[in-house]
Design brief:
α3 runs antiparallel to α4 and α4 runs parallel beside α8. The N and C termini lie far apart (115 Å). A five-stranded mixed sheet has the order 2-4-5-7-6. It has a two-stranded antiparallel sheet with strand order 1-3. It is elongated and about 130 Å long. The protein is built from nine helices and seven strands. The protein has helices at residues 2-16, 23-69, 87-136, 140-172, 182-200, 217-233, 266-271, 297-307, 334-338; strands at residues 178-181, 203-205, 212-215, 240-247, 253-259, 311-316, 322-328. 60% of the residues lie in helices and 12% in strands.
């Protein structure tokens, strides 16, 4: 047994032992050792590479699994990737931000559908009730009264439907491009509503200058009209409203509408641009004595500004009131606009 073990040890030693007698033997030995070293390093690199790649791709697997599992009903889920602030972490944070925006968009769409159905269903139900009561009454005066009530409800339903059509048109970008003088448009609309402002006890001013933009004249008229109407509707007796149009140094055209009124915070102002959200939910509110509106005015403004590649900012004023500022790309060079 001892002889056999000693013989095996000599065999192994013989495998590792290389006799170098000449230069050729040295080169052969060097080649052999180099080949063995390269093979060992290759195997080590494969193992280390497989381990490192697995560690690096683990976050990507988590991102892929999370995004695959997210659907309309699970938009609240987030990747929430932990670890160093590298490119993969930045990708995960970007996807989380996109999911947050998608969740808000889906929620707004659901609220819009629910509110739209409510706004259109309520007048129809009221019309049906009025007709049933009028037809059941033998008094002809009840029919005349029902007629006037139906006319009011029909007018409100028509206004809501037209506002929804304008909103859909602005969202889909079906615009007629033509040069429009926004300053002249604002001046014309302010002159038209001046009697309403005086009747409501609101001081309306409109320092406007020629300011040309490329866009849809019908939608831009709706944009200015909604902002002016909002400034008068949500105001108080003895309050002020100001509409200013001009051109900034960089050539962009601005429209600013500022009014006094209720005390607001930034969250309320941001929600005011959601469809069917009213700044004043009262049926008869504000200084004008008109209905509070269908809650689509500022949402239409936002869609029209977006369709014209403009920017929209709204902020509460101190101590009360609201300022809405719109910037649009210029439509004509300054020289042509002046001419």
């Amino acid at each position: 047994m001892k002889d056999s073990a000693a013989h095996s040890s000599q065999d192994i030693t013989g495998l590792l032992k290389v006799e170098v007698a000449t230069k050729a033997d040295f080169l052969k030995a060097l080649l052999l050792f180099s080949a063995v070293a390269v093979l060992i390093l290759l195997l080590l690199s494969l193992v280390v590479g497989w381990f490192v790649a697995g560690q690096m791709l683990a976050p990507l697997k988590k991102i892929t699994a999370t995004t695959r599992g997210i659907a309309d009903s699970t938009l609240h889920e987030r990747i929430a990737l932990a670890g160093p602030q590298d490119e993969i972490r930045e990708l995960a944070d970007t996807l989380d931000s996109m999911l947050h925006r998608l969740e808000r968009a889906f929620q707004a769409q659901r609220r819009f559908a629910a509110n739209a159905s409510h706004e259109l269903r309520t007048p129809l139900a009221s019309m049906r009730t009025i007709l049933q009561v009028a037809l059941a009454s033998p008094d002809p005066d009840d029919l005349r009264t029902a007629g006037s009530q139906l006319l009011i409800l029909n007018q409100r339903s028509t206004e809501t439907t037209e506002a929804l059509l304008v909103l859909a048109r602005a969202d889909h970008g079906a615009l007629t491009q033509e040069p429009v003088d926004l300053g002249a448009l604002a001046h014309e609309l302010c002159v038209q509503v001046q009697p309403q402002a005086r009747a409501a006890g609101v001081i309306l001013t409109w320092p406007t200058k020629p300011a040309w933009v490329w866009g849809d004249q019908v939608l831009l008229r709706q944009l200015v009209g909604n902002l002016v109407d909002n400034a008068l509707r949500h105001n108080r007796h003895g309050g002020t409203a100001m509409v200013a149009v001009g051109r900034r140094e960089d050539g962009r055209v601005f429209l600013t509408v500022r009014n006094s009124g209720s005390r607001l915070d930034q969250e309320t102002v941001e929600r005011a641009f959601e469809p069917f959200h009213r700044l004043d939910a009262r049926t008869e509110g504000s200084a004008t004595g008109r209905p509070a509106g269908h809650g689509l005015g500022l949402a239409i403004v936002q869609s029209i500004v977006r369709a014209h590649d403009g920017t929209l900012r709204a902020a509460p004023l101190s101590p009360d009131g609201l300022e809405v500022s719109v910037e649009l790309p210029p439509g004509l060079p300054q020289s042509e606009a002046g001419a």
